[in-house]
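Continuing the batch. This is chain 6 of the set; chains 1 through 5 are on the previous pages. Same settings as before, nothing changed between runs. Recording input and output for traceability.
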Amino acid sequence: MKKIKRVLALTASACLFGASALAFTGCTQSDETVVLRVCSWEEYIDLGGWDEAIDLESGDIIGVNSMVDDFTEWFNDNHNYSVKVEYSTFGTNEDLYNRLSLGDVYDLVCPSDYMIMKLIAEGNYVEYSDGFWNEDEETNYYANNVSRYIDGAEDSIYNFYDWHQKAACYMWGTLGLVYNPEKLVDDGDVSHWNMLLNENYSKQVTIKDNVRDAYFATLGIINNDKLMSESLSASELSKLMNNTDDETIAVAEDTLKQIKDNVYSFETDSGKADMVTGKVIANEQWSGDAVFIMDQADEEDTELWYSVPEECTNIWFDGWVKLKNGVDWTAEKMEVAEAFVNFLSRPDNAVRNMYYIGYTSAIAGETVFDYLEWNYGIEGDEDIEPINYDVKYFFGDLDGREAIIQADASTFEVNDDGEINRGRQLFAQYPPENVKDRAVVMLDFGEKLADINQMWINVRCLDLLDISPVTVGIVAGVIGLIVLASCLYGFRYKLFIKYKPKKGFEKVNEQ
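Output for chain 6:
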């Protein structure tokens, strides 16, 4: 049923795309071509080629082109000069930063929140133009459709962290635990970050193999008592979960070493397959990948869930930044870069990208909300117990409609206080307000980066003191045998073979 709903949603989106594209005709072309160099995460944009999104009326495949190709065609049809997009990808924020440090040149990049902070602090950005925020301009899709919870409003996240007009939000989400509810010893175990240390799940849990996500989860364990018993303000919560003083780093190192002994592995991407195949019970995961994992598991008739631990969660953002270094920002280049962001922010394109990658767009509005209802709404289905799932904080006013989805109650876990901290795909994509209120943006480590990295090296690198004497003896024995074998081979003629000169030569005895 869900797959059918998605096909219908994409059919509607394609119609919107066609209508908006036809609205611009008759523009003449010049010989000028502007090259836009874009660098984003791998698999983070609709690359086209869907084999299941079929227009139910015509039977045509929708979305056969990549989003980049569609943008190029749209722009070139509607402007008197053309654009060529050179699109490349990176694997981590550090990978992107290293490329920039080595001299790679990009116009538009899509790093995460802390790397956005770093680029802003270094002055390596170009602000978005005032015209980009002119809501009277119909094609300013970002300004007209971005969730005011994220950007634009006085109390939005982007205003709070001074990212407004310095970056345009693309995707966002939370950090939590994907888990198999059928294999939990106790249902409450997955409600806390201490799951990573729980001996009941020894070698059955995985943690992210990057210092930021691992450090955040560890701070959740270290500060459990304070987080669970005290009512902290947003600033107090942020200070606690971004603490990098020497004492906290030392405690985090000891805790992470205990976690290392308990978990199955530190992983970057293998946790997805490990969860679907049942190799592990729980996996520290970003909400977008959690949706992907749950979708994959559904196809294997395995039901997985996503939990946001009750202590705290990291709320993260990926956003488009126009880079200052090494870029010739002409008026045309500025227009092209902002047009690219606006094209991705058009609600029907936001739906396409959400469908393709599983992450949650920063774009709100009726088109996106309708997509959620197509996927998760059960209104009129009397066989399913309903629950009113409230996401008004994200969608705001929908022309008189309330942003409440009547969803399947069995896909959420409601605690005694009426709060939802666990659920399936809808919960992962759009956390309820109680989760949002205890979410913290993890800041750039700044001057403490070297200390944090050294701590991570101490945790992840092999410590000889941790190796058992038996293992040391075995390794030493193997090395000894290799050395002995090499010596025997080198002196084999003198030791085992009677020397004979080659034919035509005579052995000369030294006097």
